[in-house]
Amino acid sequence: MGHCHRRQFFTGYEQVAKAAVAAPSSGGIIRVFAALAINRSGGDADVGWCRKLAPEAWKFGTVLDASTPDLTNATATIQAASAVSIFTTTANSGFLVQSAKKFGLIGLTLSQAQTGSPVYAFEYWNGSAWTALTTIKTPVFSAAADIVLAFAPPRDWAFGEVATVGVDSDKYAIRVRATTAPGQAVIATAAWVSQFITFQPGLPDLSKYSLNVGYDYPLDLEGKEELHPYFSVASASNIAEGEYFEEN
Question: pTM, whole model, 2 decimals?
Answer without folding.
Answer: 0.94
